[in-house]
Amino acid sequence: VVTVMRTPLGQLQQVQTCPDCEGAGKMFEKCGTCAGQGRKRGSRRISLRIPPGIDSGQRLRVRGEGDAGLRGGSKGDLFVQINVQSHPEFRREGATIHSDAKISYLDAILGKQIKVKTVDGLVDMKVPKGTQPETTLVMRNRGIPILGGKDNRGDHHVHVKVVIPKEMSEDEQQLLEQIRVLQEETTATSDGK
After folding, report:
1. What DSSP element (H or E) covers 145?
2. Do residues 103 and 161 touch, judged by C-beta distance below 8 A?
3. I want to staple 142 with a disulfide (CB 3.0 to 4.6 A). Which of 30, 46, 93, 156 is the partner?
């Protein structure tokens, strides 16, 4: 649209987009549903494939599922923000999983094969002899799949919690006293060499 105005200094010409057709060159009949924009608001459910290894804060792009363009224009893309829920037993740190395993003091001293819950299910893990409290044992390639990596995975860190009983039977206490005496004798003879 060209507008010409006469002023004391001469003519002033102004060019602007047509407010009725917004530069389309055609007039659209305005209906009550879309108000002449050629689109209407709606919602629907779609299914997405969430790739393994995706983490909170990352976004998925779904082509052609965004808002419709004006007056029949092409659809935009939909961006989905990911938020991974926390798990009651696992803690996630990137592709690494952390969990706790409670073992008895005897299993820590003597060693034992235990079952550990992983993201893939139960897995056997060897607790070596002499494992100290708060030791971290690492299971390689048992963590979260690395996004975009074919078979690459993070590790699973198992934090060993040694449970020491507060009460025990008389027999258990006598056996432990015998072990203490043996240990003191062994220490005394090895120090006196």
Report:
1. none
2. yes
3. 156
- For 24-64, the pLDDT digits (tens) are 677 666 676 666 666 677 788 999 999 989 999 999 999 98
User: Strand, coil or helix: what is 37?
Assistant: coil
Cβ proximity of 11 and 4 under 8 Å: yes
Closest CA to 102 of 61, 79, 134: 134
Question: What digits encode the pLDDT tens for the residues 53-110?
Answer: 999 999 999 998 888 777 677 888 999 999 999 999 999 999 999 999 999 999 999 9
Contact 143, 119 (CB under 8 A): yes
The tokens for 166 are 């507060």
Q: Is the pLDDT of residue 193 over 70?
A: no
As a whole number of angstroms, the longest Cα–Cα distance in the chain is 118
SS3 179: helix
CB atoms within 10 A of CB 144: 22
Q: Nearest CA to 140 among 172, 179, 95, 88?
A: 95
Phi, psi (deg, nearest 5) at residue 27: -100, 130
